[in-house]
Design brief:
Number of helices: 7
Mean pLDDT: 83
Number of strands: 5
Strand order of the largest sheet: 2-1-5
Radius of gyration: 21 Å
Shape: elongated
Largest sheet: 3 strands, antiparallel
CATH topology: Butyryl-CoA Dehydrogenase, subunit A, domain 3
Low-confidence stretches: none
Number of domains: 1
Helix content: 55-70%
CATH class: Mainly Alpha
Length: about 170
Amino acid sequence: MAKSKKSSSMPLYLSVAILVLVVLGIILFLFLNATVLNTGNLGDYIEGISDSGFTGMQVVFGYTESTEGVIEFSMEILGFSFVALLPLVFAFVGVILNITKSKLISLIGVLFLVAGAIMMLFTSNYLVWGELFASVAELLEFNAGIGSYLGLVCFGLAALVGLYRTIFTIK
C-alpha cells in the first residue's frame, strides 16, 4: 500500500504568525511613543515634561501644531522622515520574502526583518525638525520610546519565527 501524502499547513501558520507579529509591531510603533525626551533630573523639577515625546506616526509623517482664535497660527514641529519609514518598509519586504518557498529568499526576508528591528531602535535619531525648531532641537536629546521597543520585540519575534520556518519547514 502506498502512503498517502499529507500536506502540512505548518508553513502557512508560521507565515501568518510572521504577518501578525509585523502588523502588531507597526501598530504599536505608530500609536505609542516612539521617542521620549531625555530629561535627566529636569523631569523631577518640571511637572509633565517627563512624558514628552512623539508617536511613531508623528515621527514618520510629520507633526504640525496649530492654534485657533483671533490669530490662527500653524507651525511645523516635525517633517516627513523617509529614514524613519524604512523600518516599516523593511518589515513588509521581509514578510513578502518570507512567504516564498525558496530557502535563500526566505533567509533574505529574515535579514530584512532583523534590519527593520534594529532600525526601529534608533528612531530617535531620524527626527526631521521643522524650520523653527531646528536650532532648539540641538539642545534636546531624545531616546527610543515604548513604541520603538515593542516594535523591536515584535519584529525580532517575527524574524525568529521566519528563521525557524526557513530552516525547519522549507525543503
